[in-house]
Design brief:
7-stranded mixed sheet, 4-stranded antiparallel sheet, 11 strands
Length: about 120
């Protein structure tokens, strides 16, 4: 099982990035998927999650209205559209596959993790 995230980079505050995560080695259409992030010196934190069929989503309060999570089960991918980026969004972003169909905001509910992609937002 592998998760490959891409799309990170350096962007100015107010800009946008789109992260994508491709899953292989297993069909993930029956499981929730999520995005977490970890900034230097800080603990990993929940960012967004989506249920197995894409019908339900959840967001960290500080990214609501700016980030959008989506998935394409035919392609085994999950994406995170990030708009109006702020310097405090700077972190390594990890995608993850949950153990259940319904989403969770807890990292302990996710079984598989990608290696992460760096997002840096300059002020």
């Amino acid at each position: 099982v592998q998760l490959q995230a891409c799309g990170g980079g350096l962007v100015q505050a107010g800009g946008s990035l789109r992260l994508s995560c491709a899953a292989s080695g297993r069909t993930f259409s029956s499981y929730a998927m999520g995005w977490f992030r970890q900034a230097p010196g800080k603990e990993r934190e929940f960012v967004a999650a989506i249920s197995s069929n894409g019908g339900s989503t959840s967001y960290k309060n500080s990214v609501k209205g700016r980030f959008t999570i989506s998935r394409d089960n035919a392609k085994n991918t999950v994406s995170l559209q990030m708009d109006s980026l702020k310097p405090e969004d700077t972190a390594v972003y990890h995608c993850a596959v949950g153990a259940y169909a319904s989403y969770s905001t807890s990292a302990s509910s996710y079984e598989y993790w990608g290696q992460g992609t760096q997002v840096t937002v300059s002020s």
